[in-house]
Amino acid sequence: MSDTPQHRLGELMEESNPQFETVLSCVFGIGDHETRTYLTLYSQPGSTIEELAATLERDRSTVNRSLSTLHERDLVRRDRRLLDGGGYIYQYTAIALPDVKEMLHEALDVWTATVHDVIDEFDETIE
């Protein structure tokens, strides 16, 4: 990942049967709005900020911030489309679900390995 998110894996540990949205949010350190934006883009690839703002019923600046966070976490792709009259707009597409699942597995594997290292290094002589 291009940015180191603030994982919230402790929250994930508290859930006995977490939903995919919870796993996505906790592992990538994103909020509910970013999770909702990702899932909307997954079902509506190639959306613009304006289209997402209308679908999500949020203002453009809020959607833009969510997209920036998702882009930093490598969860969305941003493509520039040239307009006929000149200029361009950005279109956003969610990263394919199999790729996101692999990223989730990798992040959890790293976290698990770290916890195993802490356990292995624990000094049994501590009182």
TrEMBL record:
Ranges in coiled-coil conformation: none
Ranges where the Transcription regulator TrmB N-terminal domain occurs: 24-81
InterPro entries according to UniProt: Tscrpt_reg_TrmB_N, WH-like_DNA-bd_sf, WH_DNA-bd_sf
Name recorded for this polypeptide: TrmB family transcriptional regulator
